[in-house]
Amino acid sequence: MPIGFSLTFKLLLIAFGAVSVGLWLGETAGWVAACAGLALLHVLHVYQLARLQRWLQSPKADELPDPWGMWGAVFAGVYRALRMESRKRDEVSRDLELFTQAAQALPDGIAMLDSGDQLLWCNDTAAQHLGLQPGRDYGLRVTNIVRVPRLAAFLQDVPAEETLDFHPAHNAGQLLSLKAIPFSDGRKLLVSFDITKIERADTTRRDFIANVSHELRTPLTVIHGFLEHMSDATVMPAEQVRRHIALMVQQSDRMLKLVDDLLMLSRLEGSDAPQREERVDVHAMLHALADDARALSAGQHTINVTVDEDAAISGSADELRSAFGNLASNAVRYTPPGGAIALTWCVDEQNRGVFSVADSGIGIAAEHIPRLTERFYRVDRGRSRETGGTGLGLAIVKHVLLRHQAALHIQSEPGKGSEFRIVFPVWRGVVDKPAARADAA
Amino acid sequence: MANSEHTSKQFDADLEDIRSRVLQMGGLVEIQLTTVIEGLATGGEDIISRVIETERRVNNYEKEIDDACVHVVARRQPAASDLRLIMSVSKIVTDLERMGDEAEKIARMARSIYGRGALTIPRSIDLRQAGNKAAMILRRVLDAKARLDTAEAEKVIAEGKLIDTEFRGILRQLITYMMEDPRTITTALDIVWIAKSIERVGDHAENIAEQVIYIVDGIDIRHTGLPPAPAPEESA
Questions:
Q1: CB A305 within 8 A of CB A287
Q2: Residues in B touching A155 (Cβ below 8 Å)
Q3: Domain at A106-194: CATH architecture
Q4: Suppose B47 and one of A258, A281, B39, B178 were both cysteines; which one would form an S-S bond, judging by CB atoms 3.0 to 4.6 Å apart?
């Protein structure tokens, strides 16, 4: 009510002044005075209004014009309303910022599309997956940038459960999976996942199953063939029967070996650590391995053993024997008769236990080396099988070494020979001699 | 949207539709090109059939888009940037369609080389490198077209020249081969055709880049090159 009161008071004041002037100087003068008073009041109000308008263009608390009469209340009211508004706006924009940051933090790509498939917003992951430029591409149809022919149809009638898998053009090595989720009024949320690794794992698994079946089938076919032949033939010389049985035994041996290796691999993959931590006398093990290797070689190779007798190692003896044995038998099988093989066990200058098998064999071309430890990876299929390999030896070696935190280094030159070197971490070393132990400590 | 709105929403929708379809067509050609480059290494028989199959779809796109352009001109009498868009779209689809043809030619050549019993294509690494570069340039020019990004279009024109250099390099090597051993001439000639096709793809990409600049700035830089003072960078 103060505004109304103030205005009434001023008007009364003008009326009173005008009436007194009218009584004193005549009626005309009275009217003139009333007009002048009203005009003055009007000018003052217009002036205040102008100040208010100017201030509203950039409202700041410290520049609020001096209130005058009833305008004080108006200015204060406007100022309060503005402040409340701006506080609310701050709150809303803070919430929005929070949501944006949360969407940014998602590990998957998120892109928001309007009903015409135009990009509204996307997080950095989506930008990277789809080759979008955040900010710049807002408002563009997403199919104009992601020009995968199937995408337009995919977005048109969004299937609830289906995904669209594709290799993005700017990064062909990546495999993306897209999912479109409709929300409010035909808008869509486009979610992108990087499934490169999953796909690779899938391929590996499929390859593995195919390989295992193939490896088991080959010897089985031979056995089956002989058995059929024997059941068909009524009379067969004893000599031939014996020969067939010998071949079948050989093939079933191969199958047994393969299944044993597979079981070993699955056991190794089942856990990360060796079954038992025990002290392993590598020198004793190595001499036994060298004897096995000589038996396999049947005197066709020179096999030398160099062992540091004092160095032992902690780990699982069974697993290490299998790993070392695989490397030694590989060396025998891939070295032509007359070649030399050297088995070495020593401690290097950094106090690490090192086992190495060097041969003067056929060697391995550089491009095969990174893939050697893959299951069933073979440089030369025919050769590997003819020498009795299962294709799993180096995969077993790799897993045993992983469990022992050891590293495998392969050096090879085709035609010259190969060296497989296993380096154990320092803490696995066990040194027997008290003097040597003092040195190591 | 890049363009200001028209009173007729339908007109906007038509233009946006044309713009989108050109880029969809571009996407198909991109796939053709990457498929055929991959095929150079493997020589798979399925690749040629895939490329030819896509080629048919590319041709359909060309006809459809041209038709849509004629319709827009007849019904809306577009002016200024809309007219430039329509005019250049009908040129861009021609370039894209030719690129598709080149991809098909490459596939046929590769088949004829492998068909002659060669296990690998000589200099295939150089060819793949040049081919990948052409595919990358195509991708970038289509991105520039979608974003109406003239700065990127100018860069594409500059890089298109690099493919020409690569082509001449391959040619020089092949000449040496042919002089050393005349028995390689048949294969070498096929490779020349492949390299030439790749080079043509680069040229078509350059043409599209020129059209992008024409749409945005209204400057025709064909045959004359960029104006001495580079056009002010577009701020989208």
A1: yes
A2: none
A3: 2-Layer Sandwich (3.30)
A4: B39
Report residues of chain B scoring pLDDT below 50. 1-3, 231, 234-236
- How confident is the model over A232-255, as pLDDT tens digits? 877 778 888 888 888 889 888 888
> B202: distance to nearest CA of chain A, Å?
17
Give 3-state DSSP helix, strand, coil % of chain B, rounded to 5.
Answer: 80, 0, 20
Tell me the residue type at A425.
P
For residue A440, pLDDT over 50 is answered with: no
Show residues of chain A in contact with B28, CB under 8 Å: 149
**CATH class given for the domain over A273-440:** alpha beta
**Is residue B223 one of the residues assigned to a domain?**
no
Using CA coordinates, name the residue in chain B closest to A148: B27
Question: B223 to each of A71, A425, B207, B219, how far by Cα in Å?
Answer: 71, 67, 10, 12
Bridge-based pairing state of the strands A176-183 and A187-194: antiparallel
pLDDT number for residue B197: 92
pTM above threshold 0.90: no
Q: Is B192 on the interface with A (CB under 8 A)?
A: no
| Domain residue spans of chain A | 2-99, 106-194, 199-269, 273-440
CATH architecture of A199-269: Orthogonal Bundle (1.10)
**Inter-chain contact A149–B24, Cβ cutoff 8 Å?**
yes
Is B16 an interface residue toward A (CB < 8 Å)? yes
Q: Does some domain include residue B225?
A: no
**For position B236, what pLDDT does the model report?**
40
Coil, strand or helix at B132: helix
Q: Residue B84: which domain range?
A: 9-217
Task: List the single best residue of A132, A138, A144, A166 to mutate versus B (max B Cβ within 10 A).
Answer: A144
